[in-house]
Amino acid sequence: MSIDAKKLTIFLLIFILFASFFLISYQAKGKLTFSKIHFSQIAAPLTYLKGLFRDFSYLKEENTQLKKQLYEISLIHKSYQELINENKRLKSFLDLKETRKDIVTIAKVISKGSNKFMKTLWIDKGSNQGVQREFPVITFNGLVGKVISVNSNFSEVLLLTDPNFSVAVRIERTRTEGILSGTGNGCLLKYIPLEEEILLGDRIITSGLDDIFPEGILVGAVKSTTKKEGFFQKIDVIPIQKEHNIEEVAVIKKSI
Question: What is the value of pTM for the model shown?
Answer without folding.
Answer: 0.66
